[in-house]
């Protein structure tokens, strides 16, 4: 579904006086407004193809109506989100959940919606119908060479799909690990995994990157073979210059200092990708910024500082993606909320007075350093983010317009009340 352009303009017009008042006030309070607006307009967050349906847990799944029934409909949904917020201009596919049967058509369709193909995701954490070998005891780590080979071949096939779509990165998340002490020889599991990743790395086109995603636990609950950023970095360093670590916010042990992790990975030139979500207990997949917004700000602060220190392009030099899907919300509304939270936090990180912060650090002025960060975090930048969105052709309030246009009702009429999108 597309929203008529004039409906966006009418919606923007209706709220423009209040927006202008807030924006003018804020413009008087902060520096570099035109530059920040340009950075916000440029910044794009990828949407995964598996986040468009209602997620579930092992206790059940309660799909909402009008879920996309195929990849084309998923692209339409992301296109709609992007039309509203102008910040979701990329799609990330999970194979085999979303195999593009006609890549040229899919690529053209995505381009019509202003979308490009972000990192491709392989899946060796589930067995697929007709698959010869089972991943019950792991994939690249497996003691059986045939099973490792099957997992390697799958990843190479995912690269091939990605090439056809114009993607330039492969994200490998392995659920490999063990559930009980003694189950696994840790060294053998690491070596097998490394050898498999090396074969996959060798199949990457020159301009491609591989992201090695880590996760502390789940589905294995005793050990995970790529369990933390140290292990991921070991693999990335051993693989070579096209290999990077991917940080998913939900994949750490409680209270991990994620801002410090991203700072050091950036320092090493080894941070490649980023998955946004929020959580209270584990890999909860909740809406970005809904539980720990200050932590998200501190992470963004390090991302901006670390990327600037290396002269990196904020938009293109890291793969940014939302990785969330949960049980009770309309997924499109949730994604709109997540992208908004990301844009707000990015804007706040751009406000940090870096010269003053460095001076405070040099003087061991702890209070001033904290004040500088909190000053930025406590600034209400919503009118700034909205101004960037309007300039780019989006809606003043994407969520309000989505509801006013009754998008979900329309999708239910078009697709049916009982559809279920592929994913977890
Ligand atoms: C695993 O928990 C993960 O974060 C990986 O990125 C997967 O590809 C994704 O979630 C999909 O479930
Ligand atoms: Mn992830």
TrEMBL record:
It comes from the Bacteria. GO terms for molecular function: isomerase activity; metal ion binding. InterPro entries: L-rhamnose_isomerase, Xyl_isomerase-like_sf. This is L-rhamnose isomerase / sugar isomerase. It comes from Chitinophaga ginsengisegetis. Keywords: Isomerase, Manganese, Metal-binding.
């Amino acid at each position: 579904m597309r929203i008529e352009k004039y409906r966006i303009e009418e919606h923007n017009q209706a709220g423009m006086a209040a927006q202008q008042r807030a924006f003018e006030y804020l413009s008087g309070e902060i520096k570099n407004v035109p530059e920040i607006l340009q950075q916000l307009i440029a910044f794009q967050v990828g949407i995964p193809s598996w986040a468009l349906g209602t997620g579930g847990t092992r206790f059940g799944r309660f799909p909402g109506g009008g879920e996309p029934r195929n990849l084309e409909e998923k692209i339409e949904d992301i296109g709609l989100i992007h039309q509203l917020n102008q910040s979701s201009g990329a799609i990330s596919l999970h194979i085999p959940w979303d195999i593009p049967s006609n890549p040229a058509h899919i690529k053209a369709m995505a381009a019509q919606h202003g979308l490009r193909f972000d990192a491709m995701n392989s899946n060796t954490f589930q067995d697929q119908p007709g698959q010869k070998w089972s991943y019950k005891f792991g994939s690249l780590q497996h003691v059986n060479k045939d099973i490792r080979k099957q997992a390697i071949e799958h990843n190479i096939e995912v690269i091939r799909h990605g090439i056809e779509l114009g993607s330039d990165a492969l994200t490998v998340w392995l659920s490999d690990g063990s559930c009980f002490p003694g189950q696994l020889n840790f060294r053998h599991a690491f070596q097998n995994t490394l050898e498999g990743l090396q074969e996959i790395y060798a199949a990457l086109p020159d301009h491609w990157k591989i992201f090695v995603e880590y996760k502390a636990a789940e589905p294995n609950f005793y050990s995970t073979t790529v369990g933390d950023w140290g292990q991921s970095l070991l693999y990335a360093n051993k693989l070579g210059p096209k290999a990077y670590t991917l940080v998913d916010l939900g994949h750490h042990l409680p209270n991990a200092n994620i801002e410090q992790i991203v700072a050091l990975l950036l320092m090493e030139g080894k941070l490649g990708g980023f998955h946004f979500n929020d959580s209270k207990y584990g890999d909860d997949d909740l809406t970005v910024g809904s539980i720990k917004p200050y932590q998200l700000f501190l992470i963004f602060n390090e991302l901006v500082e670390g990327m600037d220190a290396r002269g990196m392009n904020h938009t293109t030099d890291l793969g940014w993606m939302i990785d969330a899907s949960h049980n009770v919300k309309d997924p499109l509304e949730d994604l709109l909320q997540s992208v908004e939270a990301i844009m707000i936090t990015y804007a706040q990180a751009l406000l940090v007075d870096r010269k003053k912060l460095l001076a405070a650090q040099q003087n061991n002025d702890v209070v001033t350093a904290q004040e500088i960060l909190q000053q930025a975090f406590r600034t209400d930048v919503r009118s700034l983010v909205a101004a960037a969105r309007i300039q780019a052709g989006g809606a003043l309030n994407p969520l309000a317009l989505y509801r006013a246009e009754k998008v979900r009702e329309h999708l239910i009429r078009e697709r049916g009340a009982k559809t279920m999108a592929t994913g977890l």
